[in-house]
Amino acid sequence: xxxxxxxxxxxxxxxxxxxxxxxxxxxxxxxxxxxxxxxxxxxxxxxxxxxxxxxxxxxxxxxxxxxxxxxxxxxxxxxxxxxxxxxxxxxxxxxxxxxxxxxxxxxxxxxxxxxxxxxxxxxxxxxxxxxxxxxxxxxxxxxxxxxxxxxxxxxxxxxxxxxxxxxxxxxxxxxxxxxxxxxxxxxxxxxxxxxxxxxxxxxxxxxxxxxxxxxxxxxxxxxxxxxxxxxxxxxxxxxxxxxxxxxxxxxxxxxxxxxxxxxxxxxxxxxxxxxxxxxxxxxxxxxxxxxxxxxxxxxxxxxxxxxxxxxx
Length: 312
Fold this sequence. Notes:
- The protein is α/β, with parallel strands linked by helices.
- It has two domains: 4-114 and 181-311, Rossmann fold; 122-178, Orthogonal Bundle (Histone, subunit A).
- It is built from 14 helices and eight strands.
- The strands form two sheets. Strands 3-2-4-1-7-8 form a six-stranded parallel β-sheet, sandwiched between helices. It has a two-stranded antiparallel ribbon with strand order 5-6.
- Strand 2, helix 2 (53-56) and strand 3 form a beta-alpha-beta unit.
- The longest helix is centred in the C-terminal third of the chain and has 22 residues, at 252-273.
- The chain is globular and about 60 Å long.
- It starts with a strand and ends with a helix.
């Protein structure tokens, strides 16, 4: 069976992934498939740095703004839709280019990880969050008591994964099964954009300042009026801080500082998902000086790879 070609662009937030993807699409005849867990939400444009019409340059972008902020959306949902979009793009003899910084999305798709089909239980999640807020409850210990093997796999500070594991155990009455893998039939070429930590923090901070200066608070105010302040999508960086401003908990200046701090933390987390020593990733060191020639550098790498004959 002929493999589906797939170019993948990964790296930290604010590293220039979307711009590069659009430029490669223009040359190769491709379409973008987003691997961003925040950009799937409708109406959340400014805070997620959703590409504008001009930035898209008439290139089709898939899996952006597909669900409302209050709609349930899981990893299983994304994998299902991403798989369908990638196959459809190649069926039309276009080149699918997967772009994003959500490591769980990227590797789950490429490695064929099969997640349990247990839908999110909002009430149960709220109960667990309430226990944490009140204090005195160790969710990791709770998981250890009910599913010791899952507790061994999950770091005590990874609250979202702990809650998800407890949710699966609560729903099925069984431990979380080891994740099976069914490797998809892709011929992937993975490009990683690597900035110095100092430069990527600077670029991220500039983006945060731009968001607040160009209407983030107004965007969030309208969304909260429509969906309330507790919608799942509003857990995204920038939105929870803006909601805190609207509720009078912090000032806008404090929110800006908080968003910058959270974004720096996200960048460090992304470095864990996309490791500098991962042999699957073709890392490119990016600076302000060589950014304009980035697409040419990537095209040279692609043409020299096994994927080269397929995309030319």
